[in-house]
Amino acid sequence: MQFFIDTASIEQIQEAKDFGLMDGVTTNPSLMAKEGITGQQNILDHYKKIADLVDGDVSAEVISTDYEGIVREGKALAEIAPNIVVKVPMIKDGVKAISHFTKEGIKTNCTLVFSPGQAILAAKAGATYVSPFIGRIDDITWPGMDLIRDMAEIYAIQGFETLILAASIRNALHIVDAAKSGADVVTSPLSAYMGLLKHPLTDIGLAKFLADHEKANS
Ligand code: E4P
Hints:
CATH superfamily: Aldolase class I
CATH architecture: Alpha-Beta Barrel
CATH topology: TIM Barrel
Order of helices and strands: EHEHHEHEHEHEHHEHEHH
Bound molecules: erythose-4-phosphate
Mean pLDDT: 97
Shape: globular
Strand order of the largest sheet: 1-2-3-4-5-6-7-8
Oligomer: single chain
Helix content: 40-55%
Low-confidence stretches: none
């Protein structure tokens, strides 16, 4: 399973890169706004900075919601760097644009996916990645992880090559469950990955090893 970091913060991306396990980056308009990146040229420049920093794929989201606008914006984003993936919302014109990008050889990430039916449409259109939003489904008391399991089953039966990118990940348990449920990629803030490190027996065991060493060597 690949680990993507879900942020537009250069500092966080650098930290994840230094940790050594980062395979790619996802962003969205809310994350860009949170970093104070506004204005078309600044947005393109910021994506370029991220793409240069990262070896793997970087999802950059379109703002347009009509077919012509999505295609125009997506092409401009794809021209920034070869590792830019055009992130397109799961709407009718978005699916049409993903089909177009697929024919043009432009990588896509179909975002805001909340049902198996939407996941089938994204895969039929040839999306490189599809992003089911697990945390947001959990937020309305539906089990978000069921969607990953359904998608993994459908994609395996149908032979779809679209990669399942588990998104809206809020904690370390989400990452473990996404791995068990068949996600190809998980995207998450760095804090959830750091949560994977934690176990009290590790801390207790390490303290004992160090104390025994200290006793024997003093
Ligand atoms: C995915 O690509 C999105 O950027 C992200 O995971 C959404 O997460 P949120 O529901 O925590 O905003």
